[in-house]
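Attaching the record inline, Q. Sequence:
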Amino acid sequence: MDQLNAEKFKGKGALDAFLNLFSLITLGWMAIAIGMILFQIIDKFLSPGAVGYLSVYSQSSLKFGVASALIVTPIFLLIVNLLHQNYRKGTLNHDSGVYRWLTYLILLVTALNIIGRLIQLVFQLLDGDYTLASILKIVVVLLIASGIFGYYWYDLKRHDYSSRSMMSQIFFGVIVAVALASIIGSFFIIDSPNTARMKKYDQQRVNDLSGLDNLINVYYNENKKVPADLSEPRFGQFADPATSEPYGYRAIDQTTYELCADFDLAVEDERNTESYYYGYGDKNWYYHDAGRQCFTSQVYDPEVKPLPVR
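Structure, as predicted:
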């Protein structure tokens, strides 16, 4: 009997390995993507510093999670469905060494994840270092890992693929429901493509003003005065990313100058910047209003009396 089975499945090892390994990789990717989305939703509403300079909420992480979940979830479901069809038709062996090794690998990884998160939860509770956000994140990981462990433990013991399993249908139904709920929920807090584009432009403008500020300080160290204008080639590398127009500049005196840029969006200043900028002018372009904004700055020179900070 074993010899007949061996002949029946001969030459199918590569396909067996491909489908099982592909399902394992997409499963892990999907679980990470859904976890990433839920983490960012938790951080958005519950984490300290969820907005502003010390933000733990990341639009980029949320978008990557949404993109991954949108693409990887249907691929995982398709691969598993194809795998089960082959088991049902008898073209692949559900008891093959490849399947059993990879399934036990999934069980090992999820079991270690569950143990690690439980240890983390108990430690944080005993140490008093916990927040609602941190506990919810641990719960999210526990639920995802427990669901994967429970299903694959059941699937490992399953031998009859002649009909659809109610447990499998429930498992895959939960996956679809959680993935859809996570993705739909994220669209309520994610930036639109146009807003994301404007934020990138504004960030580039901030970086350019910082770059110009550094070059002006270099110029001052060489000439003991700020440039009269920004016509030198060294300053020409900076231009508005949307219009390609040069940034505004005005020399006020030998040590003081003004830099201007047109911003698309306002960014709220949520911290005291006086200690951060050490009194060398209003260089706080990291926090700006929308529209034309000008910042009075002064070169860094210990011998020059600093401007009062606004």
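The CA atoms of residues 239 and 246 lie 5 Å apart. Residues 50-54, 270-281 have pLDDT under 50 and may be disordered.

More tomorrow.
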